[in-house]
Amino acid sequence: MDKNLTHPEIATNLSNAAFTLAQTNNFLFLGYSKAEAGDYQGAIADYNQAIAVDPICIDAYLKRANAYLELEEYQAAIADTSLIMQLDSNNADAYFLRGIAYMQGFSEAADTEDCEQALEDCDRAFSLDPDFAHEAEPYLMRGWIYFLLEKPEQALADFNRAIALDSTLSDEIEPYFMRATVYYVLGEYEKALNDYAHIIKITPDYADVYVNRADIYYYLGDYQNALTNCMLALLLEPDNAELYFMRGNIFYDLENDWQALIDYKRAIDIAPDYADAYFNQGIIYSYLNESRQAINNFQQAADLYQSQGKYDEALEASAKIKDCKKIN
């Protein structure tokens, strides 16, 4: 404070500072209330007002970055958290939030550099704030980053830490679903199935769990359990073309060709550009010596593959057409 200021000037400065603080806190409170109600755009408007009053209010930038994350405006969140780092280079929360933004951006654009930056930011948050090592959420986030970077062993270690740290996670779906996904990638199918069973106890109507269980059972050659889980998933998502395609594959392996054809047709009815369904229909019709039907389906598959840029698959479908014609 300037030593040459008079007492009235000091009093005025203190009054102005108190007024600025009160205004800023008011906008922060309004923004937080709107964010809690799901009005993130409204929250951002209030945080903008707080920043206009106090341009170096770190809390306002943090809260606005959180709102941007909720709106999936990842670049805006990165900009806000990067600005915080200029104001406070040791702000662990800023690194953590920026890591989330980079991770989500990677999920959308598949930019490996973004995911590596996310990991670097997350590790920096851990190093700056010892409390992060005692909280589940940072481990869950870093675990998923490891998974995206194709480092399943490190991902599994972090998911295990998160679940061990927070007993309340036993009532949540996400940690177990994430860990089951890693177990599946690592080929630890029984452990994956155990986690999926835990999720079903919490939420019996989670279709993705039944889909993934069906996929595991199918891979293991347990077609009856695969079929049961696929049917349970279809009860929850009756318009899912991929589920009909999956069930068609199971019926095919159970040598129930006609039921497989019915399911492939259902998949095509829902998704007319489902090239794989046409191709598999062609395979069955070829096996049944229905050459005309086989050729028609292989041709549909070849045309769709070509239009979708799947040129190797298009060549394979075309080769099947030639095989059918040779037989005739």
What report would you give on this structure?
With 328 residues, the chain is mostly helical. The chain has a domain at 273-328: Serine Threonine Protein Phosphatase 5, Tetratricopeptide repeat (Alpha Horseshoe). Helix content is 79%, strand content 0%. It is built from 17 helices and no strands. It has helices at residues 7-36, 40-53, 58-70, 74-87, 92-109, 112-128, 136-148, 152-165, 174-185, 189-202, 207-219, 223-236, 241-253, 257-270, 275-287, 291-307, 311-327. It is elongated.
Give a summary of the structure in a few sentences.
By secondary structure, the protein is an all-alpha fold.
The oligomeric status of these chains comes to single chain
Report the portion of residues in β strands: under 5%
The whole-number mean of residue pLDDT values reads 91
Helical content (DSSP H or I, runs of 4+) = over 70%
Shape descriptor: elongated
Q: List the secondary-structure elements in sequence, H or E.
A: HHHHHHHHHHHHHHHHH
Count of helical regions: 17
What is the CATH topology assignment of the domain at 273-328?
Serine Threonine Protein Phosphatase 5, Tetratricopeptide repeat
Alpha-carbon Rg, integer: 28 Å
Largest sheet: none
Q: For the record, what CATH class of the domain at 273-328 applies?
A: Mainly Alpha
By CATH, the architecture of the domain at 273-328 is named: Alpha Horseshoe
